[in-house]
């Protein structure tokens, strides 16, 4: 039996007695829910989007400054950023995303004290993960050559990648701390840190490259410094201003480490299969004729696409917070409505991005390069970029729902099938067998993304949110019980 709508103001009228939404039975009620959920979503998403865009803009600024040094330098740093750095970024972000599920649901369930323990555990796991990824940075040049990249581009890219090794370890601190703050909706401070760091990065790039003439070395120094400033600033905020969720270092961080690793790996695989998918087109394009122009034009498009993707990574995080918090509170309807509102609004934003790209297709490449040949090549790819941006507006939001609900393994399997069994082979056939070049590669990969999007939308449509609430409650009881025992062991020691 449905709980009747309560009397009172608009907010109370929509609420059932347990704090969840009552059943929506009219257009006016649906509009009121839409308005309320929109406010909740963007209260979290706006500072998160701003922070993530600022972080990604540090990459874009680096590309812009280096791009004006020459076409070879632009291709080299683009390969390093889009292949090696993206590989590591995706893996580390995915490993840290386990915290979105656990911290978000724990916060919703009122187990705030567990957030600090989860964050410490994630720090340990990600620092060890950094050591695992280190050889990829050290041997970047031979790895890129093995993957078929132009030797000159690979050698210069390898030199830059080695110089950015310190930035890798900053991610191990940065991502868990972000998830810790996101789960509590303490996102405004992250926006301020992102903004200040972006300005600092621009100043350092200008000083090291334009004034001191350090070239790629200056870009690497600025990149490392910026990432560590971000990580340290967030940790300081946690230690000083998050007393409820941070109660100091605990032996509980070492308890049930392997179970936490399994959830982290599932999150990493899910996210990496998404991020590496677009990375693979850059690798395949390196085998096409006129590799420098091909990679350069593609890198400009993927850089812009990546900027838009980062916006939706911010919305992804906000949706994850909303879903995990509401599941922790045992509110199935609020979970469902928050998902529907986020997906609808993301599609609208994606369509707007498509229109903007098509209108400016002959001009936006000027920001990245002075080469007329590169600008013309980018213009030809603009419509593919626009379609990709529409799909990218939906897919990260659904992934955020998956993280908030703990569906990482299911989505990882779907990504593997759609992207690497269907999309990537189709792109290879269109690009190399049908001789359509980079447009064929990209078209095939768009087909894979389209298939994945339809499957995930169908899963969302069929989801039983009452069952998801039950599973969330069971998960919290399991993890909370383990960590209580761990604290006792730590006290005994």
Description:
It is a single chain. The chain is an all-alpha fold. It has one domain (27-482). The chain has 17 helices and no strands. The chain has helices at 10-13, 27-67, 71-96, 98-108, 114-138, 140-146, 151-163, 165-183, 188-211, 216-241, 257-285, 291-328, 332-359, 372-405, 408-433, 437-462, 465-492. Helix 4 runs parallel beside helix 8 (165-183) and helix 6 (140-146) packs antiparallel against helix 7. It is found in: Membrane.
Summarize the model shown.
By secondary structure, the protein is an all-alpha fold.
- Strand fraction equals under 5%
What is the count of structural domains? Answer: 1
What's the multimeric state?
A: single chain
- Global shape: globular
What series of H and E elements makes up the topology?
HHHHHHHHHHHHHHHHH
Task: Give me the secondary-structure category.
Answer: mainly alpha
Radius of gyration: 23 Å
Q: Which stretches of 5+ consecutive residues score pLDDT under 50?
A: 1-11, 481-493
Main β sheet profile: none
Q: What is the helix content?
A: over 70%
Mean pLDDT: 83
Q: Give the strand tally.
A: 0
Number of helices: 17
The end-to-end distance, rounded to whole angstroms, is 52 Å
